[in-house]
Design goal:
This is Phosphomannomutase/phosphoglucomutase. The chain is an alpha/beta fold. It is built from 14 helices and 23 strands.
């Protein structure tokens, strides 16, 4: 039996094409997906990578061979696929490798209503089924289905997706704004023109041409070097705001009028405030907002100040979405710039977060830096990775150094989190690499730097 554990990750399928997977395996994944989720119909979309159309079609053929009717929506962002899954109430498959280099591709899977499929919610069963159909020589033989083969049909969903988002945030009355958008040659170049059409926005576009070889820079705005062009264009044009989308356009990063990055935690707090106000206007007395444990302390502080309930979770979309379902939370945010909305089937959409920021900015006269300043209460290190020989030993050494200090609290919800009166740090092991990831926050930059350096000295000893 072939081992697909390197290809099937915690939340999705992702690997190099054709070295790790190809159309044959994709066809088998389509068949296994239909069997595991018990679907009579599914929706399939893909990004702009050179390998995406053929992989997506093979998956659709594999699903149809098992008796499922397949709705192909073609080029789309990941949140556009979630819209299709939610609005059509169908399980979905999105072919993308997000921000990974061009030679990669993958599949993000969901059940009907955009409910996530991860290792604990069907992905491991899909992997095991495909492995059972794969011989030692790599030959894949999918057993014939008893059902009549399903149909393949195409459907346009971009206009419906744009209309749904614009129905959730009203930008018609905002002051005119100049917006620089860096699509990174990814799917933002496909969705932004339709979503922003007719709004009081002057859009300066960067790299809107769909090109899965990423000729200008990686479509990964989490890396500061990929924001340089956006920052320069904002300053050059005197724009009010800059937006950067990742490859599949489900994450959105923001820079202010000075070209300075705005922390995703600040965006989380800003959007949370707007969503809380909207929920209150609809009669919800004490709405809930989710945040993961490496989000700034600012987020739960703002939520509590507004009389709402913050709920802290582990890092990862499956944990956020699960907690949102349990608590009926209106909104969830991660420091990685994933933003989740109850009114978007609890799925993540950077585009909806961007619309909220534009509405907030355009609804008042001040610059974005002034608007977000009140959400900037702490100094943060950002995520720092360290290669270590023994993750557990290094974590244990840090725990021993800090756990018994007076006034500190320790928890292990996700890695090791240690907190004092006005500081905290989290140390988490990577699931796929020999790395420890450190995030530090403190009331002032000097204390943050001192704490960061002290913890790193133990980790890297």
């Amino acid at each position: 039996m072939r081992d697909l554990k390197q290809l099937v990750k915690a939340y999705d399928v992702r690997g190099v094409v054709p070295d790790q997977w190809d159309e044959t395996l994709s066809r088998a994944f389509g068949a296994a997906f239909v069997r595991v989720v018990g679907a009579s119909a599914i929706v399939v979309g893909h990004d702009m990578r050179p390998s995406s159309p053929s992989l997506s079609r093979a998956f659709a053929e594999g699903a149809a061979a098992q008796g499922a009717d397949v709705v192909e929506i073609g080029l789309c962002s990941t949140d556009q696929l979630y819209y299709a899954s939610g609005s059509l109430d169908l399980p979905g498959a999105m072919f993308t490798a997000s921000h990974n280099p061009a030679q990669y591709n993958g599949i993000k899977l969901c059940r009907a209503g955009a409910a996530p499929v991860g290792q604990d919610t069907g992905l491991s069963e899909i992997r095991e089924l495909v492995e059972s159909w794969t011989a030692e020589d790599g030959t894949v033989t999918v057993p014939a289905a008893d059902a009549t083969p399903g149909t393949l049909s195409s459907r346009e969903t971009l206009d419906g997706y744009a209309g749904h988002l614009r129905g959730l945030v009203d930008l018609t009355a905002i002051r005119p704004l100049k917006v620089v958008v860096d699509a990174g040659n990814g799917m933002g170049g496909h969705t932004v023109p339709t979503v922003f059409a007719g709004l009081p926005l002057e859009v300066v576009d960067l790299y809107f041409e769909l090109d899965g070889t990423f000729p200008n820079h990686e479509a990964n705005p989490l890396d500061p070097k990929n924001l340089v062009d956006l920052q320069a264009k904002v300053r050059e044009t005197g724009a009010d705001i800059g937006l950067a989308f990742d490859g599949d356009a489900d994450r959105c990063f923001v820079v202010d009028e000075r070209g300075e990055p705005v922390s995703p935690s600040a965006i989380t707090a800003l959007v949370a405030e707007r969503e809380i106000a909207r929920a209150r206007a609809a009669g919800e007395e004490q709405p809930t907002v989710i945040h993961n444990l490496i989000t700034s302390w600012t987020v739960p502080e703002v939520v509590r100040e507004l009389g709402a309930v913050p709920v802290r979770t582990r890092v990862g979309h499956s944990f956020i979405k699960q907690e949102m379902a349990v608590t009926d939370a209106i909104f969830g945010g991660e420091h990685s710039a994933h933003y989740y909305f109850r009114d978007f089937w609890r799925a993540d959409t950077g585009m909806l977060a961007a619309l909220h920021v534009l509405a907030a900015l355009g609804g008042q006269d001040g610059p974005l830096s002034q608007l977000t300043d009140r959400y900037d209460r702490y100094a943060a290190s950002g995520e720092i990775n360290s290669t270590v020989a023994d993750q557990q030993a290094s974590s244990a050494a840090v725990r021993a150094a800090y756990a018994e200090l007076p006034g500190t609290t320790v928890d292990e919800l996700d890695g090791l989190t240690v907190a004092g009166d006005d500081w905290w740090f989290n140390l988490r092991a990577s699931n796929t690499e020999p790395l420890l990831r450190l995030n530090v926050e403190a009331k002032d930059p000097a204390r943050m730097a001192e704490l960061r350096d002290a913890v790193l000295a133990i980790v890297r000893a």
